[in-house]
Specification:
Distance between the termini of chain B: 18 Å
Largest sheet of chain A: none
Order of helices and strands of chain A: HHHHHHHHHHHHHHHHHHHH
Number of strands of chain A: 0
CATH topology of chain A: Sodium/glucose cotransporter
CATH superfamily of chain A: Sodium/glucose cotransporter
Largest interface: A-B, 68 and 59 residues
Oligomer: heterodimer
Order of helices and strands of chain B: HHHEEHH
């Protein structure tokens, strides 16, 4: 074995790639075994899409945490806090408070009325085919944005931890991650995916707990001393920032402040519209279990974000913003660098393994959601008009999973060069979910006059507005060149500049617009709402009568 | 549909009768009485926090003790209120809505709401025999 510390100082890689790879390998071996075990009870559509609806509330709470605490949460938020301090903390608050929307308004009612997908509820009392098509398009868009973020995270992490550099080698690693994810989904279905997420959530929370205690221990378990250390370290950095006060990242101008508010809105309204989160509610036997799982998820996610606060400030204090920003993966490297600083190669290897597990579990969840939406809504309902024999739908879902896996491998390889904070990419997925899905879900569940036209206007209106604003925002072109690195943070480098929307986050415009369009479309529509279907939806959503039962094995 | 799960069927008229029943109106009222004001409350509180962080950063930087400032404390307070609202909601659901929902589900399964509209009698019996 070579001298690790010297290697860390002289090359871009930290830790020992062999240890990192072996720990990751152990995780993959265990989860593959469990996935194989799960595959034996994977027969019907309810098994494949919803794990037979017999996941317990507690298990599902862990799985939701595993699904939700993506690489963006673990690497992105810790990194944002390490470099920008307070402004990074706000991400985690938005991500957490958002769960109250899911708990109070969405989770139980959706569990009671849907079978497999978000479209089941949105199309319940509307004309089936157009609404299902719209909901499927929006589901696929959100899932692809989210997948892109995870794949970009995988790429950055690989560069940092495995000593793999060069575009070809990174592409190979992204392909391996993609292939594993396809395997989990094909063989294990929702049950296998659920188990992978449960294991991953447990590892992630334990790993974060260890790092939190370790960091606090270094500061005599005094939060104020830790904050002091972070403030001191960042004041001495090349670009000094006040990490304790708000505004280090977004406080510069009036536009960036507005951007921050826009981000905050998308975060809090996005969660309850994320299709892969909604789909997890269908894996439990009853609405009460759905409630129980959200309660578990809120506690686990909340506690994890408290850990991230300590980890983030700890990385800022002990590693320092300069070293983090200089590392491959930039802000996303903060947590792994801190692990190396604290526990050397072994802790780094464990944290790296956990981060890989995180990415793998989340992409598996996203893939199964996207494939279910295509097979159940587009293929079975729109193309075949409900006339699908036997397991035809699940067969199509499996093929779709392979296609989506291939697409995300391709996009992930492209995304490697972008170098955007993955928490930010996830924030865009949240913006699309909050714009296209949430207004439609809320109207469907709580406004009896809502019509098909209203639903189509709010889904397509929110979706098109959101994506258009992103395309013409500084995210894609026209952001000023960063003097330190010499490149623009935009996807397309200067001199190409076609941006006219000033904000990076579209939510401030697209979310209210979608609510407005849903209302306007309903008011202008000529058809009357289907009162009998509405009665059925209302009674079923609140009483749980007629809800899909668990599959007995 | 190709689903193997046998679902017991209620007629649209039964759903309609159930929707108009006093106990359902009470269930709906109790559900919304908690969920709607609470949603407005936590959303306003969150928005206030975001706006204060953005436009009153000097105020939020006020040191309270040591290096801990007001912004951080209010941020941690968001965690506390989220946990508290979760707890309150579960207590409300257990006491106020679950008993009515459970009771109504039982009566719906027994097709008790079909009695109001005898015109649907055949549909009701048919549903019952399928159950």
């Amino acid at each position: 074995m070579h001298d690790i510390t010297a290697a860390a100082a002289t090359t871009e890689t930290i830790g020992n790639p062999t240890i990192n790879i072996s720990i990751f390998g152990v995780f993959v071996a265990i989860t593959l075994f469990i996935t194989f075990r799960a595959s034996s009870s994977n027969k019907s559509a309810a098994d494949y899409y919803a794990a037979g609806r017999n996941i317990s509330g507690t298990q599902n709470g862990l799985a939701i945490a595993g699904d939700y605490l993506s690489a963006a949460s673990f690497l992105g938020i810790a990194g944002a806090i390490a470099v920008y301090g307070y402004d990074g903390f706000l991400y985690s608050i938005g991500f957490l408070v958002a769960w109250l929307v899911a708990l109070l308004l969405v989770a139980e009612l959706m569990r009671n009325t849907a079978r497999y997908t978000m479209a089941d509820v949105l199309a319940f009392r509307m004309r089936q085919r157009p609404v299902r098509m719209a909901a499927a398009i929006s589901t696929l868009t959100v899932s692809l944005f989210y997948l892109l973020a995870q794949m970009a995270g995988a790429g950055g992490l690989v560069t940092l931890l495995l000593g793999v550099s060069g575009e070809a080698a990174q592409a190979v690693v992204v392909t391996i991650v993609g292939a594993l994810m396809i395997f989990y989904v094909l063989v294990g279905g929702m049950r296998g995916t659920t188990y992978v997420q449960i294991i991953k959530a447990s590892l992630l929370i334990i790993g974060a707990f260890v790092m939190t205690v370790w960091v606090l221990g270094k500061y005599g378990f005094n939060l104020s001393a830790l904050l002091g250390g972070a403030a001191e370290s960042s004041a001495a950095a090349a670009t000094p920032r006040d990490v304790l006060a708000p505004g280090a990242q977004y406080g510069a101008t009036g536009t960036s402040k507005l951007d921050f508010v826009s981000l905050g809105l998308a975060l809090v309204l996005g969660t309850a519209g994320l299709p892969h989160v909604l789909m997890r509610f269908y894996t439990v036997p009853t609405a009460k279990d759905a409630r129980r799982s959200v309660v578990w998820a809120i506690w686990l996610i909340g506690i994890f974000y408290l850990f991230s606060l300590v980890i983030g400030y700890g990385a800022g204090a002990l590693v320092g913003a300069d070293e983090i920003l200089a590392a491959p993966g930039a802000v996303n490297a903060a947590a792994p660098l801190l692990a190396f600083e604290l526990g050397g190669t072994v802790l780094l290897g464990i944290i790296a393994g956990v981060a890989f597990a995180t990415i793998l579990a989340v992409v598996a969840g996203l893939t199964i959601t996207a494939s279910a939406s295509f097979a159940h809504d587009v293929y079975a309902s729109v193309i075949k008009k409900g006339q699908v024999s036997g397991n035809g739908e699940v067969h199509v879902a499996r093929i779709t999973a392979v296609v989506i896996g291939a697409i995300s491998i391709g996009l992930g390889i492209l995304a490697l060069q972008a170098g955007i904070n993955i928490a930010f990419l996830v924030a865009l997925a949240f913006a699309v979910a909050a714009s296209a899905n949430l207004p439609t879900i809320i109207y469907t569940l709580f406004w009896s006059r809502f019509t098909t036209q209203g639903a189509l206007w709010s889904i397509y209106g929110g979706l098109i507005a959101c994506v258009t604003l992103i395309i013409f925002s500084p995210v894609v072109s026209g952001a000023p060149v960063n003097e330190a690195t010499g490149v623009s943070p935009s996807l397309i480098q200067p001199p190409v500049d076609f941006h006219w929307f000033p904000l990076n986050n579209p939510g401030l415009v697209s979310i209210p617009l979608s609510f407005f369009l849903g209302w306007l479309g309903t008011k202008l529509s000529k058809e009357e709402p289907d009162e009998l279907k509405n009665a059925e939806l209302e009674v079923r959503s609140l009483t749980g009568i007629g809800a899909e039962k668990a599959v007995a094995h | 549909m190709s689903d193997p799960e046998e679902r017991r069927l209620l007629t649209p008229e039964e759903y309609r009768a159930a929707q108009d029943s006093p106990e359902f109106l009470e269930l709906k009222r109790r559900f919304r009485r908690f969920a709607f004001p609470m949603t407005v409350a936590f959303f306003t509180w969150y928005l206030l926090y975001v706006l204060l962080s953005t436009y009153a950063s000097d105020f939020m930087s006020t040191r309270v003790f040591g290096n801990v400032n007001l912004g951080l404390l209010l941020g941690l307070a968001q965690f506390v209120t989220t946990f508290a609202i979760t707890h309150l909601y579960v207590a409300h659901a257990n006491r106020q809505t679950d008993p009515i929902a459970d009771e109504m589900r039982g009566r719906l399964e027994a097709h008790e709401f079909a009695r109001d509209g005898r015109a649907t009698g055949t549909g009701g019996t048919e549903g019952a025999s399928r159950a």
